[in-house]
Automatic annotation (TrEMBL), chain A:
Polar residues bias spans: 1-12
Protein name from the UniProt record: ATPase
Pfam families in the cross-refs: AAA_5 (PF07728)
Organism encoding this protein: Streptomyces diastatochromogenes
GO molecular function terms listed in the Swiss-Prot or TrEMBL record: ATP binding; ATP hydrolysis activity
Residues of the ATPase dynein-related AAA domain: 94-232
From TrEMBL, chain B:
Region entry Disordered, spans: 116-153
Top-rank lineage group of the source organism: Bacteria
Name of the featured protein: Uncharacterized protein
Comp. bias regions, Acidic residues: 120-144
Record-linked Pfam families: DUF5682 (PF18934)
Amino acid sequence: MTVSVEPTSVEASGSKDPQALRPHAEHAFAAELTALAAQDDRPRPARWKLSPWAVATYLLGGTLPDGTVITPKYVGPRRIVEVAVTTLATDRALLLLGVPGTAKTWVSEHLAAAVSGDSTLLVQGTAGTPEEAIRYGWNYAQLLTHGPSRDALVPSPVMRAMSEGMTARVEELTRIPADVQDTLITILSEKTLPIPELGQEVQAVRGFNLIATANDRDRGVNDLSSALRRRFNTVVLPLPESADAEVDIVSRRVEQIGRSLDLPAVPDGVEEIHRVVTVFRELRDGITADGRTKLKSPSGTLSTAEAISVVTNGLALAAHFGDGVLRPGDVAAGILGAVVRDPAADRVIWQEYLETVVRERDGWKDFYRACREVSV
Amino acid sequence: MSDDTTWGKAHASGPLLLGVRHHGPGSARAVRAALEAARPGVVLIEGPPEADALIPLAADPDMRPPVALLGHAVDEPGRSAFWPLAEFSPEWVAIRWALEQGVPARFIDLPATHTLAWDTEPEAPSDEDDEDGADDEDAPDTEGEPGAVRDLRVDPLAVLAETAGYDDPERWWEDVVEHRGPGRRDPFAPFAALEEAMTALRERYGVGGRPRDLVREAHMRLQVRAARKEFGDAVAVVCGAWHVPALREKAAVTADRALLKGLPKVKADLTWVPWTHRRLARSSGYGAGIDSPGWYGHLFRAPDRPVERWLTKVAGLLREEDRIVSSAHVIEAVRLAETLAAMRGRPLPGLSETTDAVRAVMCDGSDVPLALVHDRLVVGDVLGEVPEAAPAVPLQRDLAREQRRLRIKPEALERELELDLRKETDAGRSRLLHRLRLLGVGWGEPAVSRGSTGTFRETWRLRWEPELSVRVAEAGVWGTTVLAAATARAEADAVGAGALAEVTALAEQCLLAGLPDALPLVMRVLADRAALDTDVGHLAQALPALVRSLRYGDVRGTDTGALAGVAAGLAERVFVGLPPACAALDTDAAEEMRGHVDAVHGAVGLLAETLIGTSDTGQRDLRGRWRSVLRTLALRDTVPGVLRGRAVRLLLDDGELGPEEAARLMGLVLSPGTPPADAAAWIEGFVGGGGGMLLVHDERLLGLVDTWLTGVPAEAFTDVLPLLRRTFSAYEPGVRRTLGELVRRGPGKNTGPTTPAAGLPGFAAEPDTGRADAVLPVVRLLLGLDEVREHEATHDNSLTGVGA
């Protein structure tokens, strides 16, 4: 299961800027990190703020010997966090893969905060990310007046992480153009960053490592070359394991979003939320919840994030145009839109699902009818 | 505990008791080391004593583990138990050691004579036995193993593991026992420590919910005592760790004898059979109790650095499958596995650490290649071999008995056998032959029946070739009776089948061979395949065969409820998938699809008839939904003409579409806006396949075709001609002539005006009583009506008149 547990109360003492809309992980959870560091007597790799064991505890939650409760940041298979932390400890770069909405960025931020105490050495990958964002740029005023020197150099977050032995983060690695991606190869294998203009180089200090995140559903954006791929240990963050857990995530997020959008409160939508989650899970997994019937999976991702948006839409419909109760009709169109991405193939899959699974299910009659209405 | 005292205790004061975990490579290594050190005069092993005579076969060069000792009741081969032995089983190591050293080896467990007899009467607290006893969840070999000991029974290792703070007993055992390298220290120390722990457990839990153990242990004690009389203290015993405290216990001989009195008995026979790693794995249902025989085998074989060797092996496998895995990957995977083990506080990377490392480093986080690694390496494809000298497998005996019972002798001479399935014996023969065919024993081949074509008749061509005996021996892997073996084989075939049609054929065979137990799984596979198959053609092909089996099952009185459900589901998928699949097809594909539409139409009719009895409302209006699919096809412009025409025709035949509507649709297609080739194809679909009479009787339709044909431009006519020729040349000569005459006469000049009041188009308003009367004598004869009721029959003649 994957859920990003948002901090419910921000410890004001740890936050540098109390006005910040969203404080960094290391500030929001400063108290927990300090408590962990105080109790942590296991060996720490060079320049790590905590031992690997303590980092895993920080992410997965637990109670320390002195009674301090560590909230779980990532609720999911323990194995995944252990492999991720161990990877960082063996100075291999870590690649977090997953469909949108599986808390990749969240995990990477907390890993960086726990390992290096700083999650801000971040390169946001876009189609326009230049080489300078990964290597270094120049302060041209300096360059023109004093000529090339280390002072005229503007280091990238990755370069700073190398020289200080910190953890750098690269978001959406596959969106970065292939030639820019390739600059990472030298950094990851040789652990040096040459500066030919000055005839110098920056050597990574022990403790340096890199966490990248990528979306494995958007194929072909800029697939990683096998040379680069080889430098990473890959961890795939899975979708929630059980239906109840997913319903829980969806209703919690829907509630939060609803509040921020000032939607009128809709009393009881749990049944419909459960239904949406069930439909999404069944189609995604290619098997019905009772494990009896196999299904074809449509081309869309059908992630938890999409279930959330379907329900939010449904709520808006119910609040503004309906009778204020979330009904099957309110979510049917949203589901259809999420499932049928490819009009030819997905429509057949959806209809087959309607006819073979939904039609026969007890208590789903209204839903079946609503779906038939929008599907035909 | 100090090593010196335990050594004294373990050896000097009595027999050397080596408590093991079955199939534990660490145990196996420890047993060998202990035997080497102690050099006993006799080795006693937990296992059925009837197999003593088979022990020398283990040294045969043709004997290759994994193998199993198969015990079965002589009169009832279905009652059987297996004692599987892998290369890394401590028992196997002990047997081999004894044979190499020329030391006698003996099995000392309770004889299979009794254990097999036990199978019928359930053990008091809980019993997991299947009724046929073929699954040996409870077979004597599984004792003391964490995997086999479940639920109500006390799992000794789970208790120990929990005490040590582990949540998984397997992992605890691995860390404590299996992952310790070959003993550098005292070879007896691990056994002494284990015995101490087990003694504590036995004191606390007694027999752990298995009262039969007491009887078995009494027998083992007696055997050990007998061996000590013969060989003194130079006796080594290899048995499940759980039994060690009981064997150490000093019990009175008379008390032990008393326990063994009056045990039920059956005549039992034992032999070696080949076994596979897959069956050692728990997932296959045989429950020998280990998840990862391949991994254990590796741990046992690897001389050193097991993790490095394992990961190199994994890399080799992935490379064979065309994944790019370099030595650098292996290095990184080893580092990751070792660091993970350190982080998890384990002495050495275990299977879970290496698997995590392989996933993260070599498989890009994906579970797909990992599944391959699990299948090929962690479980493994290893197949054991048994020398030819091993006694006959029970399947041969069962076959011989069946042949006697059904009075059907294997003869080398070819002969034909006519079976009337309504007779008990003949039905039995048919089932036997079908089952043997499933098992690859081609004794009989079905032949075309002469004379009668009824479904209750079958003709077989029989011929027994000598090599068929070999086939039977080979088929022994599948089970101990023909029925069980055929069932197992059918299930395995279903899982391995590639195409949907194969599974449907298999379902048909299961019905013919009378294998009701295989049907649920075959049906499940069928449903799964159908759900995932995106080609409507495959589905449409599978449906008629399935419906046919359904009818066949009725004839033979088989329960076909599951089959009907699957068939209905299949039909549903065809309905959904057909309209999109019919768009944008070329001529050949359209022609093929027309065949599918016809086949599905027929199958749906039969299926709906079969389903009438069922109460499921969803399945009842199957015909109605099929008609709405046909309607969609008929009206959609992207559907090729031949299919549209066919759909209209089928609807017309079913009375679903009025002749008016059909004529309107035809007029639409034959109007000048439609390309002539498309229109000709429509006509082929509509009146092809015996539709000539339709044109003969409905002049309006004929008129439409006639008008259209005369309007086809000259240059298009040559394109249309072959199609039309194909359509019309298929008609019977009589129909062709009538059509020709009608066309020559021209429209409107037929015998009577086709007014709406006339009822059926093409028929006169009033029946021709003169012609009808002529048929009456024959009808009377057919119906067996006597003179008195002749009167009523004449009144009812309008119907027969139409029929004439």
